[in-house]
Amino acid sequence: MNGQKQNIIQTDVVIIGAGPCGLFAVFELGLLDMQAHLIDILDRPGGQCAELYPEKPIYDIPGMVEVSGQELTDLLMTQAAPFKPTFHFNRMVVALEKIDDRLWRITTDAQEIFEAPVIVIAAGGGSFQPKKPPLAGIDAFEAKDKTDGAGVHYAVRYVQAFADKHILISGGGDSALDWVLNLQPLAKSMTLVHRRDEFRAAPDSVRKMRALVAENKMTLHIGQVADLKGEANVLKQAVIKTKAGETKTLAIDSFLPFFGLTMKLGPVADWGLNLTENLINVDTASFATDQAGIYAIGDINNYAGKRKLILSGFHEAALMAHDAFSRVYPDKKLIFQYTTSSTNLQKKLGVK
After folding, report:
1. How many CB atoms lie within 10 A of CB 272?
2. How far, in Å, are 33, 93, 345, 350, 352 from residue 341 at the CA level?
3. Contacts of 212 (CB under 8 A, 6+ apart)
């Protein structure tokens, strides 16, 4: 079934989203001889792990005491490699249509057309973008080179880029406090500004931050950033208005506002799927939607007891793959095998 015909890419499965769940789905589908193409709006695999916290430690992946978002992405890519997935980055799916009782057709904004019996939506919460603080001229100071720590950054991709920088972080959630703690040892100076002296972050992170303040290793201002200043698009200063009514001007190299993300479901909302608050309802026996051949795994789906955890998405990918087998191979019987004992599966993985 794989191959190209009349400029239409024909494959077994199209996965929308190349985050951790989409990447692990490649592995589970590959064990069952299903080939996948992946489409992602980002320019690389890994989804939010790679885009928003590539160097931030993750502690709840089974068997890994600690792994960064980028390390997890790299490991999943290595695990999927034996099944030769094809990636289509910087693409958005703009249309989905049913061809017949078995096939679906997908079109991207790059005018690529895919046909497959199985569509897997693994798009996290949809396309996402950081919430920007309402500061005039902020766009001019946004970092163009992600390996350079100077300027405005909405995510940390390279920790070492912030070494010896005067850093200002704004926000009161886990992302803001985590990066205060992770970057403070590298920074020339670290300042945190938050509109109130209460934080939404983990209590242990707040305790550690306050200890650094007490030891004069960083500065905390209760207030908000009112203005950014610089020359020739190079960030030089931030103006802070404190809750007490004072105005302070700080010399800074780097400004990291962590105000969360704006999630947009995008065209998925128009595909006629059964939704609950912009999440796709699924059957937990297979993670199928109400449209035969379309599945949803990871943060984008909804069911009773749902938890938005990467490990939950891995489980969902496995059950999805076993159900999808019957659509790709309607005349074959699926024989369940374990990778630990099946020489057939081990051969596919290149370990035998």
Report:
1. 12
2. 18, 39, 8, 14, 11
3. 180, 181, 184, 190, 218
C-beta atoms surrounding 188 within 10 Å: 11
Torsion angle of the four alpha carbons 260, 23, 75, 186, in this order, in degrees rounded to the nearest 10: -10
| Closest to 184 in 3D by CA, of 202, 165, 199 | 165
Cβ(112)–Cβ(9) below 8 Å: yes
Whats the size of the chain, residue-wise? Answer: 352
Region 156-162: mean pLDDT is 87
Structural domains in the chain, CATH included, are 3-128+262-348 (3.50.50.60), 132-259 (3.50.50.60)
Cβ-based burial of 103 (10 A; exposed 0-12, middle 13-18, buried ≥19): middle
DSSP for 174-196 reads HHHHHHHHHHTTT-SEEEEEESS
Alpha-carbon span 63 to 49, nearest angstrom:
18
What are the tens digits of pLDDT across the range 165-179?
Answer: 999 999 999 889 999
Asked if residues 69 and 53 have their Cβ atoms less than 8 Å apart, the reply is yes
Q: Is the pLDDT of residue 225 over 70?
A: yes
Count Cα atoms within 13 angstroms, Cβ side, for 136.
Answer: 4
pTM of the model: 0.67
**Sign of dihedral through CA atoms 45, 47, 52, 56?**
negative
Name the burial class of residue 50, with classes exposed (0-12), middle (13-18) and buried (19+) by CB atoms within 10 angstroms of its CB: buried
